[in-house]
Amino acid sequence: MAEAVQWLDGQAKQYYVEEKICPEKHIRQNQWQSEWNQAYLTNRDKWTYDYISDYECIFNHPIDVDYNQSNLHEARKQGTALPITNLAHFTNHSYVYEIIETGGFTGEMKKINEDAQRDDIVAKFSWWSPIFTEEDNNQVRDTLGAAIQPFLGQCDDLANLKNQFATSDAFKPNPRRYGNRYFQYGINELCQCNYADSLLDDLQYKIMGTFGYKQEIMHAVLVCSQANGAGRFRAYPPVLTPEEDANNEAVVTRDNHGNWTWKPQATGTEIRRLDGRRPYPMYRRWENVAFAFHIPDAEEAKITVNDLISHLHQL
């Protein structure tokens, strides 16, 4: 029997945004249950957004092909694997000078769970997202294009269909949503800067949980010290290595050499379908992976990094 999934009320930065939290688990697209959509939808947008994978979006929804008898099933199981090498912290122009003057990132308080009495569990984190290159984007499109190509008819355009992939904010960050400035560092460099008194291999990398929104599914990875990993965050399971991910079900893995891999299942928003399919729903949720660097409770604690100005970029 599948383990029960419990969604908690979250606290999004914008008061009008509905946020749900599934702590300690990364909920994949194939685990999504349709009744969970009701938390985000109104009568006006009842059929607008659903959590539909890249491998299913070209068909009618619900999917109208025999999934298990097609090569698509195996392709989806294999997934699209993207290396994570660089992380970015997005911000607005007005906050850039404050970050530079203070020499680092102080983080913000965030609800991540509830205790046995249903009281909020909050902690301070600095949030970072992967930055992908156009080469990465093309890899996603080519991989998915090869998977869907056998289903195309004479009236279908492969280039048009595969160009819907790797188009979400996870691949092309929107400055109106994220801010028009960002600081970029290598992921392992950032980990070492954050916990300078710890060896890189002594850090704890844990599955914080899944954060659900109307248009987005965010899989959060917790980065913390060994002491906090064994203490306040001990209930959170570790990020798996590729060898431990025997069933190829992990959203994110990290090997013993410090190499990170993300395996997204939903990389676009606007849906393009095979000729003759129904046009609705028109949109779907996209996935994002975020790294939450824990900021200790000590006064003036922050992530201190080197040479902030040279690592500053503009969207």
Structural class: alpha+beta
Largest sheet features:
10 strands, mixed
Separate helix tally = 7
Overall shape: it is globular
Determine the N-to-C terminus distance.
46 Å
Helix and strand sequence: EEHEEHEEEHHHEHEEHEEEEE
Describe the model.
With 315 residues, this protein is α+β, with helices and mostly antiparallel strands. The chain has 7 helices and 15 strands. A hairpin with a 5-residue loop joins strand 11 and strand 12. The radius of gyration is 20 Å and the shape is globular.
Q: How would you concisely characterize the structure shown here?
A:
The chain has seven helices and 15 strands. With 315 residues, it is α+β, with helices and mostly antiparallel strands.
